[in-house]
Amino acid sequence: MPNRTRYFRIQSANPSSLYSPGVTVEIVITPGIPRHTVVGLAQGAVKESLDRIRAALGAAGYTFPRGAITVNLAPADTRKDGSAFDLPIALGILAADGQMRTDALQQAAWLIMGELTLDARVQPVEGVMPAILDARKEGVSNVILPRGNMPEASAFPGMHVGAVRCLKEAVDILEGAQAIQPITNLTQAPLPTTAPDFAIVIGQEACVRTLALAAAGSHNVLLTGPPGCGKTLMARCMEGILPSWSRSLALEATCLHSLRRPGMALLERRPFRRPHHSVSTAGLLGGGTPLRPGEVSLAHGGVLFLDELPEFHPGALEGLREPMEEGKVTLSRANGVEEYPSNFQLVAAMNPCPCGFADSPDRRCSCTDRRRKMYRARISGPLLDRIDMHIPVGRVDPARHIDRDPVSSSAWAQRVDRASTRLVEEPPVIDQTEEQVLIKTVASLGVSMRTVASIRRIAKTVAAFEEADRVQRDHMAEAIRIGGHSRLI
User: Fold this and answer.
1) 236 in a structural domain
2) 232 and 273 within one domain
3) Is 412 within a domain?
4) How many angstroms separate the CA atoms of 295 and 301, rounded?
5) Res 487: pLDDT
6) Are residues 380 and 436 located together in one domain of the fold?
7) What CATH number does the domain containing 161 carry?
8) CA-to-CA separations, 325 to 259, 330, 359, 409, 437, in angstroms, rounded
9) CA-to-CA distance for 42 and 76, rounded, in angstroms?
10) What's the whole-model pTM score?
11) Is residue 192 situated within a structural domain?
12) Which of 174, 190, 218 is the last residue of a domain?
């Protein structure tokens, strides 16, 4: 072994953050007593990497250098977690020890991520998509990733991506023995939706129209009614009529999913998340070690459906206030602070009382007044005030709707998409006359100013739904009915 210090550095990224800052992996091999150190606020999985790398190098036919090896992950004041540093550390050790040519690494900027197994295979890792997004902004165009992360890399046309199965393939790419090709923007056929069709909903035409309005304007909705009246079914049908979205929003939403599940392809449609009411506060809002986005962030750009709303933990429900108002959630923990976008549409459903028949004309409610009040008190006033539309849903007699002409989800989706586009490009205006009607009406209802602003937004959505340039009297009346007076029922 030459009696000199050997040094090499290679670029990677911190996979534990949405805004993945670049991490420079520095390798120093010095003569002396063998010892191995990883510095730079490395957490458990990172500190274990040298043990995996030693076995992987031997399995791939390379030798683990003798002497003292120091691995520095810069910047040193940022916590690093996860196994994505295995591959860049291994390649850095080979480069510093002279076991591989480094011309390609020195002539161009590379982003390298991947977990190594003991037999030198490369496993997929989390957080690849935000890492590529951040690296592309810094001018990096060459990436080496595990084969399992290729669906995430395919969302970045123009990037040169080498998807490897083992350590030897990564070395071959960097030594020029294996070429990599740029990602092309391939147009894929949209996946069929699994959402039920609105055509199967019987006798709830008014509710269906209101839900279509909510989808067009991204309004929060609360469905209240007895068991079996179709609340859950109609909420699930909304997934099939959500408006199309921009590529930038789809990319941002997919980055959030990439932090939770590796190998995520670019989301083709808005997410529809429906966590069970037993979900923890951390599961709903985000948390854990390391910090990870929760359901409110995984629903970014789409719908968060909470069925049986009063059954959710009160702390979790109250935690919805900030993301509903700000469109983001900030997680502050002892080990760091993360901010995740959480601009979702809340769709919730609940029974009017524990037995479910408080407002039913067919069955007698078995709950006392105290039980009904306690049940409804599980949802606080501030949270209810942030829900734009409160829709009472009644029971339906199927015999009265035998000869019906149902409207399919595809027909509703076309109207929703047109209305959503109009709201963005040419939103309808409210003239002074209709504004005075709104002020006079809400003065008698005793609603909050947040509700008044919500009614204005709903009125514009109704006008856009009817393809009108200005909010008319009937548009304002419908907005007040579903967005103002309904809150007092």
Assistant:
1) yes
2) yes
3) no
4) 12
5) 54
6) no
7) 3.30.230.10
8) 24, 13, 31, 29, 26
9) 9
10) 0.90
11) no
12) 174
Tokens 């304002």, residue?
A: 476
Residues 448 and 355 in one domain: no
Count of C-beta atoms within a 10 Å radius of residue 420: 21
User: In the prediction, which pLDDT does 489 show?
Assistant: 44
Q: Which residues, listed in sequence order, are joined to residue 348 by a DSSP beta bridge?
A: 222, 306
348 with 215, same domain: the answer is yes
- CATH of residue 366: 3.40.50.300
Q: What is the pLDDT of residue 21?
A: 75
What are the helix and strand counts (H, E) for the chain?
20, 18
As given in the structure block, the two tokens for residue 122 are 């490369």
In whole angstroms, what is the distance from residue 26 CA to residue 277 CA? 46
Pairing of strands 22-30, 68-74: antiparallel
Name the residue range of residue 465's domain. 426-489
The pair phi, psi for residue 255, each rounded to 5°, is -60, -40
Beta bridge partners of 24: 11, 74
In a 3-state reduction of DSSP, which class is residue 42?
strand
Cα–Cα distance between 25 and 91 in angstroms, integer? 10
The residues pairing with 116 across neighbouring beta strands, listed in sequence order, are 122
371 lies in the same domain as 222: yes
23 falls within a domain: yes
Helix (H) or strand (E) holding 381: helix 381-385
- Taking Cα atoms as reference points, which of 403, 409, 299 lies closest to residue 346? 299
127 shares its domain with 69: yes
**Both tokens assigned to 399:** 């015999």
Q: How many CB atoms lie within 10 A of CB 253?
A: 25
Are 163 and 150 in contact, with CB atoms under 8 Å apart? yes
How many folded domains does the chain comprise? Answer: 3
Distance CA 310, CA 289 (A): 28
Distance from C-alpha of 451 to C-alpha of 435, rounded to nearest angstrom: 14
Region of residue 120 (phi > 0: left; psi between -120 and 50: alpha; otherwise: beta): left
Cβ-contact 81, 16 below 8 angstroms: yes
Low-confidence spans in the chain with pLDDT less than 50: 1, 187, 189, 488-489
- Cis omega (within 30 of 0) on the bond before 323? no
